[in-house]
Design goal:
single chain; 203 residues; alpha/beta; Rossmann fold; 5-stranded parallel sheet; 8 helices; 57% helix; globular; binds adenosine-5'-triphosphate; binds the ligand Cc1cn([C@H]2C[C@H](O)[C@@H](COP(=O)(O)O)O2)c(=O)[nH]c1=O; P-loop_NTPase; Thymidylate kinase; EC 2.7.4.9; Thymidylate_kin-like_dom
Length: 203
Amino acid sequence: MSGRFITFEGIDGAGKSTHVESVAQHLRQRGAELIQTREPGGTPLAESLRGLFLHQDMDGLTEALLVFAARRDHVQRVIAPALAQGRTVLCDRFTDASFAYQGGGRGMDLQVLATLAQWVQQGREPDLTFWFDVEPAVAAARRAQARDADRLEQLDLDFFERVRAGYQRRAESAPGRIVRIDAGDTIEGVAAQIRAELERRGW
Ligand SMILES: Nc1ncnc2c1ncn2[C@@H]1O[C@H](COP(=O)(O)OP(=O)(O)OP(=O)(O)O)[C@@H](O)[C@H]1O
Ligand SMILES: Cc1cn([C@H]2C[C@H](O)[C@@H](COP(=O)(O)O)O2)c(=O)[nH]c1=O
């Protein structure tokens, strides 16, 4: 039996990574064997591409080709085998990020992204995606408190408004899969929203 594929999405600083571990604990307590991974990244090759992606200047098409190259390696070597073994896969970002950042943020043609997604994923989609939705100014303030900005995090609030709108469009196109979390809530409040969704599904 195939395992569950759960992804975490949102603009930088929305709070995704803060909650991946608590979801892992929740599911482990209910008997799931799971792996935690991230994009871009998750394999030695994809982590190398992540380093280039986060720190080298490039245009939107190059960004898209890099993240989909990294994703191909990640899906083939890690995600698909884990799911085939019945494991739950928790992934910090996946293809919705490409539609939001390269599509919404950079203005890339969504049809091109859809074609890349089809080639790379061969129909494999997450079973559940938590979209951490928050005002870009709130996310920027959280990032500023937490760490130095990487290449994308240095972009202005208009960019993150477009990325947020990109996520909104994705959520509207896949309402059963993508669950909006009010990430402007406190950490405890966000954790409660996530737990409620997992329990609603009996997971
Ligand atoms: N609900 C919240 N309220 C206040 N601060 C929060 C909340 N959630 C997370 N934070 C803080 O905001 C910062 C960013 O959180 P986190 O790293 O989880 O975001 P992220 O969405 O994973 O970011 P990125 O995708 O850029 O890595 C951290 O310092 C974290 O402690
Ligand atoms: C998968 C993916 C990611 N990105 C961007 C989004 C973030 O700015 C970085 C990843 O950093 P994080 O701290 O791990 O969140 O990469 C993107 O633009 N497109 C993608 O497909």
